[in-house]
Design brief:
Endonuclease Iii, domain 2, Endonuclease III, domain 1, 12 helices
């Protein structure tokens, strides 16, 4: 199957079976989403949403967070992964927003990456979800699923995967495709035990075809 056809069939399947695909992080403003995405590194969205309920009540905006101490922020986020680093990043991010961006979250990906705790993946999430830009954030789910489906080939890192994906996905669908791949990886195409028997993408999944070749064992 040629790459163009593979993308077309995958996109068609997701469009039919997952017409609504959005972030599972709870947020009410660009600032809140930025905080949530920083917290989500190596942490589940479910855990982040529990943490941010109290965190956002105490720090509803960049100004209040910028005035906080790292120790105070730590007390709210201690149950997530790497709370020390994230406390430092969150306070530093808020102070930079106040000092250099007038308290507003920048929309430019390069500007976003200047903020403490914000790498390319986080910047792409904000650009895509908040500002509707055709940015593809590649996390572990996107990286794994796109490789298994044959959408990416021998991508050595997230940036290579991102470039291959945006080359073939229509610009208007990039933001939704990001969520398609994340959600599919989170609930079906899981890392250790992919639920292939429940997956509707078997027919054009290179991982499935290699693991269960025609004529071979069919117990998935």
């Amino acid at each position: 199957m040629r790459i163009k056809e593979r993308y077309a069939r995958v996109i068609t399947w997701f469009s039919e079976h997952m017409p609504v695909a959005e972030t599972e992080l709870a947020y009410a403003s660009p600032f809140e989403l930025l905080v949530a995405v920083i917290l989500s590194a190596q942490c589940t969205d479910k855990r982040v949403n529990l943490i941010t309920q109290d965190l956002f009540r105490r720090f509803p905006d960049p100004e209040s967070l910028a005035a906080a101490s790292e120790d105070e922020v730590f007390a709210y986020i201690r149950s997530c992964s790497y709370p020390n680093n994230k406390s430092r990043h969150l306070v530093g991010m808020a102070r930079m927003l106040m000092g250099e961006y007038g308290g507003e979250v920048p929309h430019d990906i390069s500007e976003l990456q200047k903020l403490p705790g914000v790498g390319r993946k986080t910047a792409n999430v904000i650009a895509s979800v908040v500002f509707d830009q055709p940015a593809m954030a590649v996390d572990t789910h996107v990286f794994r699923v796109s490789a298994r489906l044959g959408l990416t080939t021998r991508a050595k890192n997230p940036l290579e995967a991102e470039r291959q994906l945006v080359r073939h996905i229509p610009e208007a669908l990039v933001h939704k495709a990001h969520h398609w791949l994340i959600l599919h990886g989170r609930y079906v195409c899981q890392a250790r035990k992919p639920r292939c028997a429940e997956c509707g993408l078997q027919e054009f999944c290179t991982y499935f075809q290699k693991k269960f070749p025609p004529g071979g064992p069919q117990n998935v």
